[in-house]
Every structure is written in C-alpha cells, then in structure tokens.
Design a protein that fits this description.
Blueprint: H1 2-9, H2 12-25, H3 38-49, E1 64-65, E2 73-84, E3 90-100, E4 105-106, H4 109-120, E5 123-124, H5 126-141, E6 145-154, H6 155-158, E7 169-176, H7 177-180, H8 182-192
Parallel strand pairs: 2-5
Antiparallel strand pairs: 1-4, 2-3, 3-6, 6-7
Helix pairs in contact: 1-3, 2-3, 4-5
Amino acid sequence: MIRQKAVLAMDCDKIMAAVRMFLEGIGEDPDRPGLVETPERVARMCGEILYGTHSEPTEVIKALDAPGHEEIVLVKDISFYSTCEHHLLPFLGKAHVAYIPAGGRLCGISKLARVVEIASRRLSVQEHLTTLVADSIMKALKPQGVIVVMEAEHLCMTMRGVQKPGAKTVTSVVRGIFRERGATRAEALSLIYS
C-alpha cells in the first residue's frame, strides 16, 4: 500500500523524458533496439527504489502495550539500499537499530526494519538517512532512547572519484538515554559489534 501510493505520486512522463534526454546527452541513440524501452524501465525502477520519497517512516510504527520490558531491543544487520543525492548512484549496507522502551510501549521488531526500508528508499546522504531512522523511531514510539548505526559502501566512491571498492562509511545517531549514559551506549555498541 505504501509503495503503491508513492508510485502514483511520481510523474513517470517527466522521468521518461529526462531519461531520453540523458541518453541523447551522452551520445546514445534512444531509439536503438537495446534502449527503446529504457525510459519506461527507468520510470518503473524509480517507483521501486525511490518510493520512500512520498512515504513517512513513522507510518509503520504501532506501539504495542507490553509493560515490564525496559531493556535494549536491538535488530542488527538490516540490509538496505539507498541512492546518493549527490551523484544518483546507490549506496548499500547494513543498519543496526536499538531502542529502550518507555511506558510499556514496544513495537514489533519487523517495524524497525520497515522504518529503515522506507527511509532508505529516497535520495539522501548516509548522515541524513541515519538521522531520519533515529528521529522517526523517537517520534513514533517515544522510547527512553534510540541508537542507529549504519555501515555502507557508496558506489560514487567505488565507480568514480577515488575509486576505492570496499571502503565503508559508518554513521551513528544517538538519542535519549544512549546519549546521556555512556555505559548504556557502550552496551548497545557491544551488542551491535559482537
């Protein structure tokens, strides 16, 4: 449902026209057999990989009433793919998301992965993506704290520029109790990297 709504918000005619102009701009013939359907394929692809542009990550978090648990909840190694807003090339990696419930409010663990999924499916930079995931969970769930660590390889560094395949960028965002208490942050990081 979220994806369908987002795809409908995109202007596929503009995307197809832009792709056609791009192909002409690099010296290709958009009417040759291998490229004739490329503008339409790219427009469909945009609906798949950029649907988060028209979606709100907080929409998927529903607090469940489960009093008594106020310890770290961690989902790690969440695969994600995103698109760099500077070069329109992918970056991909793993996200690790932890929170400490407050007031008996838990969420299904799959919802944490869904927040990462929706947030990553837009043009962004890794720093902003990490912040969006953490802030979305803080806003929707109101936990004692959140920590998000993202590790990614950026194809704009692999394919162009410094051309360093395998180089990883690590970003982290800490909110609430994880920021205030070093021991709590250290515990979460040890769970993430164990």
